[in-house]
Amino acid sequence: MRPSGRAPDQMRPLTIEPNFTRHAEGSVLIGFGDTKVLVTASIEERVPPFLRGKGEGWVTAEYGMLPRSTHTRSNREAAKGKQSGRTQEIQRLIGRSLRAVTDMKALGERQITLDCDVIQADGGTRTASISGAWVALRIAVDKLLAEGKLTVDPIVHQVAAVSCGIYQGTPVLDLDYPEDSGADADANFVLLDNGSIAEAQATAEGATYDEEGLLRLLRLARIGCTEIFAAQRKAIGR
Amino acid sequence: MRPSGRAPDQMRPLTIEPNFTRHAEGSVLIGFGDTKVLVTASIEERVPPFLRGKGEGWVTAEYGMLPRSTHTRSNREAAKGKQSGRTQEIQRLIGRSLRAVTDMKALGERQITLDCDVIQADGGTRTASISGAWVALRIAVDKLLAEGKLTVDPIVHQVAAVSCGIYQGTPVLDLDYPEDSGADADANFVLLDNGSIAEAQATAEGATYDEEGLLRLLRLARIGCTEIFAAQRKAIGR
Amino acid sequence: MRPSGRAPDQMRPLTIEPNFTRHAEGSVLIGFGDTKVLVTASIEERVPPFLRGKGEGWVTAEYGMLPRSTHTRSNREAAKGKQSGRTQEIQRLIGRSLRAVTDMKALGERQITLDCDVIQADGGTRTASISGAWVALRIAVDKLLAEGKLTVDPIVHQVAAVSCGIYQGTPVLDLDYPEDSGADADANFVLLDNGSIAEAQATAEGATYDEEGLLRLLRLARIGCTEIFAAQRKAIGR
Amino acid sequence: MRPSGRAPDQMRPLTIEPNFTRHAEGSVLIGFGDTKVLVTASIEERVPPFLRGKGEGWVTAEYGMLPRSTHTRSNREAAKGKQSGRTQEIQRLIGRSLRAVTDMKALGERQITLDCDVIQADGGTRTASISGAWVALRIAVDKLLAEGKLTVDPIVHQVAAVSCGIYQGTPVLDLDYPEDSGADADANFVLLDNGSIAEAQATAEGATYDEEGLLRLLRLARIGCTEIFAAQRKAIGR
Amino acid sequence: MRPSGRAPDQMRPLTIEPNFTRHAEGSVLIGFGDTKVLVTASIEERVPPFLRGKGEGWVTAEYGMLPRSTHTRSNREAAKGKQSGRTQEIQRLIGRSLRAVTDMKALGERQITLDCDVIQADGGTRTASISGAWVALRIAVDKLLAEGKLTVDPIVHQVAAVSCGIYQGTPVLDLDYPEDSGADADANFVLLDNGSIAEAQATAEGATYDEEGLLRLLRLARIGCTEIFAAQRKAIGR
Amino acid sequence: MRPSGRAPDQMRPLTIEPNFTRHAEGSVLIGFGDTKVLVTASIEERVPPFLRGKGEGWVTAEYGMLPRSTHTRSNREAAKGKQSGRTQEIQRLIGRSLRAVTDMKALGERQITLDCDVIQADGGTRTASISGAWVALRIAVDKLLAEGKLTVDPIVHQVAAVSCGIYQGTPVLDLDYPEDSGADADANFVLLDNGSIAEAQATAEGATYDEEGLLRLLRLARIGCTEIFAAQRKAIGR
């Protein structure tokens, strides 16, 4: 029995509120249950030094948690003067995931930065960030297309992510915080709408797992991502 | 004529959404027009080293802007590894303002931290932060009173803040970004509900000003804060 | 009764020793009683990136306290690896104050940095810094004029600053440390020699204050700045 | 055809030189072909604050690359003043992997730190680090057992890691640098000697992959880790 | 011929102004010609962690240059967020030099920090710092003796330092900036009043040197330190 | 009697293993007894900003100790976020020493960085670093000569360094850790193969010393460096 009473393959209520803020070229407030992440996409007409003059673009991400997005207050990373290893690991994952669906030649020499800021945390903040970031990116790129700055759409797929884990011996989908902190294994999958895998990360916390366990988690992730893909399309009116 | 078409003594629409997030002891999303700040109040049963064993509490504040809360993206302070002078100046002001209405003896040896994070910026983020922080603090302290952890209310006044400035020769209330960036003088007043002043800061940007100018700005601030005090009370159901 | 025995509107002995060091284009040791600040003005023939190619100059300031300028030793900011919020707040104020009297077009594409280093602290270090910085700036600009690098004087006014406060119920001028640490309200005014106000900052420490209080403090500040303006002129031989 | 001429399921020559340095409680120089990592295990009779008084131990890891371990010199992280996101991600992975085979109650209130320093890099530094760290940990714990400080062996399994990837359409084992930089997918598996999985991370670089691809990579990893487990045992004389 | 016209074994005019500031337990403004260093000695009734409970004291030093103490402005170390290698090297040297004449048992569990801040630089700032630090330390310790906090004098010798160098083929004493920047070899000697050497550092800049050169520099240093020892005694009235 | 049983003028066994790693243009593992330092020389076809366009090259050094190169584990400087004063002092010394034997005009506009990483420490890490750095530099420059990128050899001398000290009243050569931590005086000499001195640093630790002591230490250093020069030549096959 899951603490939330959900079925093992049941996602939390999924909410996607596009255009949550007004300055960013793309923005969205995404909710996986009580986990709420604000994602903005910012377009800049320049690329990092290693790409200058190559005719290619770049998509990158930054991630942060508001100090009291969590059950007890965490210190503000800006005040501590550095980002934690966890923060850096997550923002690297978000960036890779979005780059996996972007054609950098088609994007041209510009950079899109996805800022993922956790307003409220209840497990799954990195997967909500990736799933929301795709919507923010889509909105921002649609503006470039509408303005004629791009003629070919550089976004070649949808991408979404969800966590799964083995909780009290049962593989379950979309872990919330009570499950996350007690799970034996904890996995994050980043999937594309054509069924292929962009990233799989599965970590044994208490007990280790085997092939069969890995495949069962992946199967749950497919169920979750199918639901997220639909919600993404609905959010942008397609 | 103000860019927004407002009368000189007219505030922007004021919105206060209490309990915006669920983990913090107090939280609020406050809007001064398009300026939106999320404020959370976190109670910790400990005080900074300089107060230990003195039987007094402490109220402090931290402030941050999400990277794309602004018209163009700013670098994330956590990634830069330090908070700007502006950030530190603002969080010091917020902390002082809230301490001005708190009886530290009555609060007892605990600390309340007010995290003010700007979701969207359109001028007046520090004054919105202070005005919202009072509501978050009030909610958090009400919990302590309800739980019997406090028997005497340590909050002795309401506090609110608003900006004023001289825009194209006319003193105006509650500057938005277009006014703020073009004003000749820019002032922030922190007022108490008994009419007294907790803090006045008035800076000449283009042209300097005189006593009469200072007093006219202060008079506008009183008009604005009266409106904010009412909205604060309404938000907490009093 | 003030701890020093001064009358409420009496400044501490004011000393201005121009050309205190030899390398800087302008330098001064200014004393407000036991508060001693060394200010140097350094001219560089370049401007910050945001001004390049605009034909305008820039005036900026940095502030520091020697570790044992204070009653008990403070940690060295260079050793701690960062400047405190207070330091940054003060250096921003000094910079704004001097820019308020400088015509940046007339200065041309060069930057003048005012380094204010507190040798000994007894209250009022920021106001002594501003008042001394004007003298150092004046000396440095006079060199540019003498060398023919400037033909039009970019300094359009004198600027000076002084602190005032409400000490045991009485408004007093130019607070020393014992008054500063016990004052109910603490204000700093930056005034121009034409009577206008460049900056007013008034903070309630123990008790809040009202319009009348604010105006009485401002009137004291006018008395103090008149004396400082005369001392500034005398120091540069005018 | 692999650049090195190896068969798809062929590891590079594996070398493990135990007791490479003399001060550490355990040390090893491990080589996966031209990748050489020095790992030391340091025992300290204290635990991090979050574990104090709980009767449990801790195993953690740090990772670094010598500036010229790579083809072109990288900046020294100590000189830059911070560890990169990649470094932090890797050292977190190493720590988790070793904790997966350690019984913290049996270890008692002491901490073992595994320092993994890359002397020469040619792909697979993190997997060589994990595989070598187990040997260093084993040697250090054997000393604790020999000295009678421990009576129950806290190491409950062997752990090893290896990278796999899809290179020019073919799944291959133990990528060297030329393969790593050109692979379509890149995976790292951390396996236990009982066949279970401690960690799986698979990232699509150029092309994404599917279940079948993931399983083929995992099968290769099992081949590689079997070889590493044997080499580990041989290195410690078992 | 020296740029200053001095004889090879001639020091610059030596000035020592004791009690230059009022808060520190000991303070001095020392001048070696145009090099001016303010040194303060601060007594704290605590020792660094590695000495706690051992019944011994500690003497340490910090060093800094005001940004415009030099011919062209240097960046402020507090603003850069770190002390340069040169700064750290110098403050370590100052600390060692003063510890060489202090009996830590006799000092008891307290720390004396010598802050050496360069007001104006013209070569020889580290040697002026050491020579001045002894006076500041002496004054501070005399207070401890006068107050009865110490009964045995922990200062067992005088210590002084001076630079020497080979300038255009000639060994010269007490290099000023023009000599320092053009010297073939540059040495700093820290000597005790009993003739023994606490520290010798000699660096070839342009040309290397031999034993004879080293000894000639040391002989010059003895001449200089004899003069400094006399000035130190005179400054403290002995 | 020395703890190691060596004669006062006896070096520890000296080992130089050239080409220890493969990516660097020059590399060497040097051993002074149990002190082992890996030195790599990296050539970059660019110079620091202050040398651009001057037709001159630059030689610089960085130094680090692996966390467990020492008897007890030291914190990793990359994790602490800064290099210690000791580290900076040592890397400055290494750089100066190598520059003393390099003709920067002959080197041309390129930089050679010598990374000295201590694998195992037993006293004398800085002198081993210098002595090994010369070999790494020699190998790297020989490549430039062989490739025809240089036609004139920019290395004009051999340079080597060794520590000496006064241990229990006796001057001894090449201190190991037990001697180093108990010595009354501790000196490092950097000598050239033509007999001249590049750098002499002698510090009194417990007792001070005199001219005669200094000269006796220098004479020991000559004996040690003669041995090192021979080993350097043998290592590069000359």
From TrEMBL, chains A, B, C, D, E, F:
Phosphate binds at R86, G124, T125, R126. InterPro entries: ExoRNase_PH_dom1 (IPR001247), ExoRNase_PH_dom2 (IPR015847), ExoRNase_PH_dom2_sf (IPR036345), PNPase/RNase_PH_dom_sf (IPR027408), Ribosomal_Su5_D2-typ_SF (IPR020568), RNase_PH (IPR050080), RNase_PH_bac-type (IPR002381), RNase_PH_CS (IPR018336). The keyword Nucleotidyltransferase applies. Keywords: Nucleotidyltransferase, RNA-binding, rRNA processing, Transferase, tRNA processing, tRNA-binding. Residues 10-140, 157-222 form the Exoribonuclease phosphorolytic domain. Gene3D superfamilies: GHMP Kinase, N-terminal domain (3.30.230.70). Phosphorolytic 3'-5' exoribonuclease that plays an important role in tRNA 3'-end maturation. Removes nucleotide residues following the 3'-CCA terminus of tRNAs; can also add nucleotides to the ends of RNA molecules by using nucleoside diphosphates as substrates, but this may not be physiologically important. Probably plays a role in initiation of 16S rRNA degradation (leading to ribosome degradation) during starvation. Belongs to the RNase PH family. Homohexameric ring arranged as a trimer of dimers. PANTHER family: EXOSOME COMPLEX COMPONENT, EXOSOME COMPLEX COMPONENT RRP41. This is Ribonuclease PH. It comes from Sphingomonas qomolangmaensis. The gene is rph.
